[in-house]
Amino acid sequence: MAMEDVWLYPRPPAIEPVIKQIRIEFAGHVIAATGAAWRILETTHPPVYYLPRDAFVNCELLPGSGASLCEWKGRAAYWTIRAGTETAERAAWSYADPLAPYGPIADHLAVYAGLMDACFVGDERVVPQPGGFYGGWITSDLTGPFKGAPGSMGW
Questions:
Q1: What is the DSSP secondary structure assignment for residue 56, as one 8-state letter?
Q2: DSSP per-residue codes, 95-109
Q3: Which of 29, 72, 134, 155 is the most buried (most CB within 10 A)?
Q4: Which regions in the chain score pLDDT beneath 70?
Q5: What count of Cα atoms within 13 Å lies in the side-chain half-sphere of residue 98?
Q6: Residue 141 region by backbone torsions, left for phi larger than 0, else alpha for psi between -120 and 50, else beta
């Protein structure tokens, strides 16, 4: 297995299609699955995976509170995910009109893995990026350290 060092990811971040199947489980259901995701690769961060909105099934996507601004991608809106009787507030985010060259992630959502039951890249269950702000997914082919851990905010 080829290892990826997140410290070698570029700035500004790269965008690339994902070849593997992406799956998200929440409230005992598969709420999203796709072979048509994108990933953003930014220095010191594990990849963030963006799934097409139509990949989300067995759940409701409700507008969440607040917004944020990414210097690279633009203005992000947040989403609450509801499935059955469970709700995850601000569990996902999206860019309605992302800046170039990130246009392919328009109408796609990224999800905080730590707020879901499980997220998978291929057959591998991911580990959420440390901290509560960043939403990267850590897989066994990545080396860090990863931004988000205590003491890393100044990186």
A1: B
A2: -SSPPTT-GGGTTEE
A3: 134
A4: none
A5: 19
A6: alpha
